[in-house]
Write a structure and sequence with these properties.
The protein has about 150 residues and is an all-alpha fold. It folds into 2 domains: about 90 residues; about 55 residues, no CATH class. Helix 3 packs antiparallel against helix 4. The radius of gyration is 21 Å and the shape is elongated. The two termini are about 40 Å apart. It comes from Methyloprofundus sedimenti.
């Protein structure tokens, strides 16, 4: 789980009244405050700062608000603490997996439209060409141009 997905659960909540709306807004503000501190920590890892961030995250996830659905969402987020705060132990890791998700987005769209392949050979061919296409795009090359030269 990454931070974007963690917040998505909170964003999908539908507050029933003003106090629920305030509770959701406060939780979201705290969540993004922790995220921004994690970004700063990545640039300059300081042990004292890491323990402070962990403590704030634990307090956020154990907070009881007037909105029970928010409480449950925060509790689930707390269960993913190891994944969300992994950067405190390994500052070289990214805070989110957006690049990985972007890499497979074309493949997922094609799979949704066309369905799966009929054989292992078809799967291997699809995976190979999807990987080549993405690699060409990352290097600013034309995929078709590459295929003409390579084959």
């Amino acid at each position: 789980m990454c931070w974007i997905h963690a917040e998505r659960v909170i964003n999908r909540l539908i507050p029933l009244n003003d106090s629920h709306t305030k509770a959701v807004d406060d939780a979201r503000d705290q969540l993004w405050s922790i995220y921004h501190d994690l970004k700063a920590y990545k640039l300059n890892p300081v042990t004292e700062q890491a323990s402070s961030i962990r403590q704030r995250f634990q307090i956020l996830c154990s907070t009881k608000t007037c909105y029970e659905t928010l409480n449950q969402a925060l509790g689930r987020m707390g269960k993913n603490q190891h994944e969300l705060l992994r950067v405190l132990d390994k500052p070289y890791l990214p805070l989110h997996n957006n690049l990985s998700e972007r890499d497979i987005r074309d493949y997922v769209k094609k799979r949704k439209i066309s369905g799966s392949t009929r054989s292992d050979a078809g799967r291997k061919a699809r995976d190979t060409f999807a990987s080549l296409k993405k690699t060409c795009r990352k290097h600013g090359m034309s995929f078709w141009g590459y295929l003409k030269v390579a084959y």
